[in-house]
Every structure is written in structure tokens, then in C-alpha cells.
Design goal:
This protein is of the alpha+beta class. Helix content is 19%, strand content 36%. The strands form 5 sheets. A 6-stranded mixed sheet has the order 1-6-2-3-10-11. It has a 6-stranded mixed sheet with strand order 5-4-25-24-28-13, covered by helices on one side.
Length: 412
């Protein structure tokens, strides 16, 4: 049977934070019986990022057969608990069969794809993969899309490391190291991406929760240049924006900016490709929708500039961050995941453990109170072991998102 165990603690010294976490884990290890843990996750808040190598080295010493992945976040998450703006560490381990996962990083490409150092064709195929990436990598979007194309399903989940001073991620498999502990810094990566790929035998269910709600109708981009939209449904884009925001003044009239700009600054844009549905059930953004900032206005040409290049034919709707909508959407994806583990429909599968990656802008007060986001998950899923982090961008499918939560639950 698949088991997950997790532990978390806060302490300003990385080594002592690890001691607190290990005391919790060690007391639970009997749950594995004869199946020792094989895979682990380690998430550190930015305040402990300087000790990432020491923490990973300590975990290797205590659990030498476990492969590790992880990242630094603006904060870290665990069942019912959020650590934001404080030194914290969250760790989870499971006994997934070795044949069902592969760790990858800059020196060990995804198995089965002859790219990078040490990679060679094999019969092992990545069905899905969890990804951690350095937010400072200039080509991170292209790296994510390329990696997704090398999995059977095209589905990735994960997030960007969000450390203010240390944007790093972790990936280490002891089977790839010649000596047991020859390099104390092994497994700590800067730049690029790393993670763990899973075979098709690993049952997992993943969903994206949006943190924004539409303030206007779905529209099609009918004229654009690079990142500037000039027409929506054949109408001037700026005029559409002002109409959706309830701005009565028109562009060119005296004082229109005084009325419009405060509302525009609180507005974003939900964007999706032409072949995807922007809205589900006509009310909330679909899983393929990417939320992007508005970065400028062009009153002379009625243009609206986004923080992403766009193409004619894409769908778009203006939106705003909305705490109530974020709560409702998080409850919705939990309900969908619960259905996937309904004992009547799936009698041989139960929710065993979970990974949750949330946007750094969603934590704490955005849901009304500290720990509120994690309380919603625990209320919906039960107190299953869960760890994660507050990211600088969230990854789902082949896309990079913002203001979202990506919840992945493993069945066992």
C-alpha cells in the first residue's frame, strides 16, 4: 500500500529546523513496515534558503535511499498550515515503487529522450511530471513547453522557485551519485528546471484553481501586434476595457483617465488559445486560462498591452483578483478531486498524499485569515499528508500561470 508521511517546522537555523522535522518523521516511519520510503519532497522558505544544501545533506544522511525533489518558496505549506515570511521547512516522503518514477535535472535529462548529459533511449516513458524551475531563467516558458512535449500526456504540475535572494530548486537521486556523501552541495540547482517524472502506473489527479474572476464577457482578439491588443470582437480594445469596468467617460474626454486608471490598475486579463475554452459553465475561468497583467494603454490607437505576446484568434476576458471567487474555485476543484477518489467508483484507490503549489500573492490575507487556504483543502480532502510552497508562478499542463493554485493528489 502507498503511504505518505509529512512533517514541518519553523526555526531560524536550517539545521535545527531539520532536527524538528526529523523528530516528527522518525516517530512515523513504522507506518512503512517493510516498504521503506523511496521518494521525498523538501520545501524551504526564503529565510532558510541559504541552508538548502545543509538540509538536503542532512536528509540524505538520515534517509540515504530516498530520492529528493523540492524548491525554495516565498513560504511553505503543509496540512492545515501556512508559513509565510518566516523560516520554515516542510518535508514529505512516500514509498512509491522505484520503477514508477525518475528524478531529472540539468545533468540528468528525462529518461527515454536522448538529450543532455547521461540521457539515452530507454523503454521507460514519463506519463506525467512534477517540475520545479528557477524563476530567473529567461527561457523558463520554453523549457516548460519542451518538457511537456516529452511526456506521454503533456501534463506537468509544479511551480517556480520564489526566493527573493535564493531562487533555487532541489533534485537528487542517490542512485545517480558515485559516492554516498562525496558532495555536500549535491542536488541544489540554480537556473533551468528539475523534478520527478511518473509512469502511467502512478495514479494522480491534478487541478488548477484560478484566483481571478471575469468582469466582462468572453471576447476574441481580432487585431493585435506582439503584446498589444487593438481590437476585441472587431471593437476598439480600450473601449471594451472601459465598458467592462463601468467607466462612463470615453477616451479623449477631459478627466477620463482620472476615472479609469484606478479601476484599470486593479484589472488583469484572462487569456487562452483559440482552441481552448476560456470559461467553464460561463462563470469561471477554465483550466487552460492564463491570467496576465495589463502593462500599458495606447489611447491613440485604443490598444491594451498585456504581459504576454498574443495572437489574433485568442480568447480573452478582463478580470480582477477576488477572494470570494478564489475560495469558491478552490472548493470546486477539491470536489472534483474527491469524486475521482469516490470509493464506489474507484474502490481500490484512496487519496494518500498531496502536493499544493499556490501563488505567493494568494497566501494568508487573500483568503481572509492565516492558514485559511490550507483549512479549505483540509476541510475538503481530510487531513491527508500535504506539502507545497508559495511560488513565483505555477505550472500546469505546458503553461506557466499566475494567481492560481495547483493541487495534485496521489492515490494509493
Amino acid at each position: 500500500m502507498l503511504h505518505f508521511l509529512h512533517a514541518h517546522a519553523t526555526h531560524p537555523q536550517p539545521e535545527l529546523a531539520l532536527e524538528l522535522v526529523w523528530a516528527q518523521l522518525a516517530s512515523q516511519l513504522d507506518a512503512f513496515a517493510d516498504d521503506a520510503p523511496t521518494l521525498g519532497w523538501c520545501y524551504l522558505s526564503d529565510e532558510l534558503a541559504h541552508g538548502a544544501a545543509a538540509v538536503l545533506h542532512g536528509l540524505r544522511q538520515r534517509l540515504p535511499q530516498v530520492a529528493w525533489v523540492g524548491a525554495v518558496g516565498a513560504g511553505v505549506l503543509a496540512t492545515r498550515t501556512e508559513y509565510m515570511d518566516e523560516p520554515a521547512l516542510a518535508v514529505m516522503v512516500c514509498n512509491l515503487p522505484r520503477a514508477d518514477f525518475r528524478v531529472f535535472h540539468g545533468r540528468q535529462a528525462l529518461p527515454g529522450h536522448p538529450r543532455g548529459h547521461g540521457a539515452a533511449p530507454s523503454h521507460w516513458h514519463a506519463h506525467t511530471a512534477q517540475v520545479h524551475a528557477d524563476a530567473r531563467s529567461p527561457d523558463v516558458g520554453e523549457l516548460i513547453a519542451e518538457l511537456a512535449s516529452r511526456t506521454d500526456t503533456g501534463y506537468l504540475f509544479g511551480g517556480l522557485s520564489a526566493g527573493q535572494h535564493h531562487s533555487l530548486h532541489l533534485a537528487l537521486d542517490p542512485q545517480d551519485i558515485a559516492g554516498p556523501f562525496t558532495d555536500a552541495g549535491a542536488g541544489v540547482w540554480h537556473g533551468g528546471l528539475s523534478g520527478v517524472a511518473f509512469s502511467e502506473r502512478v495514479r494522480l489527479v491534478s487541478r488548477v484553481s484560478q484566483g481571478c474572476s471575469p468582469v466582462g464577457p468572453r471576447r476574441e482578439i481580432t487585431a493585435a501586434d506582439r503584446n498589444v491588443i487593438y481590437e476585441l470582437d472587431g471593437q476598439p480594445a480600450l473601449a471594451c476595457l472601459l465598458r467592462d469596468l463601468g467607466v462612463t467617460a470615453t477616451v479623449g474626454n477631459s478627466g477620463w483617465q482620472r476615472e479609469a486608471l484606478p479601476k484599470v490598475r486593479a484589472t488583469l486579463a484572462g487569456l487562452t488559445d483559440a482552441s481552448s475554452d476560456l470559461l467553464e459553465h460561463g462563470r469561471h475561468f477554465g483550466a487552460d486560462t492564463r491570467v496576465r497583467h495589463l502593462v500599458g494603454l495606447d489611447p491613440a490607437r485604443q490598444g491594451v498591452a498585456l504581459a504576454e505576446e498574443v495572437e489574433v484568434g485568442m480568447q480573452m476576458a478582463f478580470c480582477q483578483r477576488h477572494a470570494q471567487a478564489a475560495r469558491q474555485d478552490l472548493v470546486r476543484i477539491c470536489a472534483e478531486i474527491r469524486e475521482e477518489f469516490d470509493p464506489q467508483e474507484h474502490p481500490h484507490s484512496r487519496a494518500a498524499g498531496a502536493i499544493y503549489i499556490s501563488c505567493a500573492g494568494r497566501g494568508g490575507e487573500h483568503f481572509g485569515a492565516p492558514h485559511a487556504e490550507m483549512e479549505i483543502l483540509a476541510h475538503a480532502l481530510g487531513d491527508i499528508p500535504l506539502v507545497g510552497f508559495f511560488a513565483g508562478g505555477e505550472i500546469a499542463r505546458s503553461h506557466l500561470y499566475g494567481y492560481t493554485g495547483v493541487l495534485t493528489v496521489f492515490g494509493g
